[in-house]
Hints:
Blueprint: E1 3-6, H1 13-22, E2 31-34, H2 45-54, E3 59-61, H3 65-74, H4 87-90, H5 95-103, E4 108-111, E5 116-119, H6 129-143, H7 149-154, H8 169-181, E6 185-186, E7 192-193, E8 208-209, E9 222-225, E10 241-243, E11 253-258, E12 263-268
Parallel strand pairs: 1-2, 2-3, 5-9, 9-10
Antiparallel strand pairs: 1-11, 4-5, 6-7, 6-8, 11-12
Helix pairs in contact: 6-8
Amino acid sequence: xxxxxxxxxxxxxxxxxxxxxxxxxxxxxxxxxxxxxxxxxxxxxxxxxxxxxxxxxxxxxxxxxxxxxxxxxxxxxxxxxxxxxxxxxxxxxxxxxxxxxxxxxxxxxxxxxxxxxxxxxxxxxxxxxxxxxxxxxxxxxxxxxxxxxxxxxxxxxxxxxxxxxxxxxxxxxxxxxxxxxxxxxxxxxxxxxxxxxxxxxxxxxxxxxxxxxxxxxxxxxxxxxxxxxxxxxxxxxxxxxxxxxxxxxxxxxxxxxxxxxxxxxxxxxx
Length: 270
């Protein structure tokens, strides 16, 4: 049995099928981890969701920002944006089952035996792993509860940009979601910056990758994340960080990593 973590699919189901052929995926023995952003922008988000849901106990999913956006649209709390490709899901006969399954997926997965933690964007520099797990559970309890609308209608926005355990209500939930699903750059004091969207080489001098923030409290954890295609799967040499978004939806690659030996596999996209 092997465990493979796969980066952002974003509806590129044909490429996912090719990647599973490359790794000789056995749906009776192997486990697939998905680092979020299963849907949107690619052409086959519906097929992607149906397939992953069909894996049953042979998959682990964490939600990404595009997955949460789908949920907000499905609950009529947001409109589709330019470039969204969610219509086939919203019109599908099994739409309600898929949406209900998706909203019950977590934001963080930790496997103590394998020694990895996975979220879509990473972990706030201000959180230990234990704290991150509890905070993710706070969001999951609302999303899985009777009023998921409270989260879905309040999660949009860039503030608050600094974690404070005294945050409450919608601001607390929004801050947790932003660190887990949208984070790329921070200031040196750990404040989150969600305004800069350019290339790493052109970033303002006062911004640094979240994993380079001095004193990061989860620096000893092995962290799998997606979300940041511009990294092209590269993180600081010798680090215990595993970036798996290699920009499939932009015509680059879809990547899987076998957790037992860290070997990577990829297929060309587009």
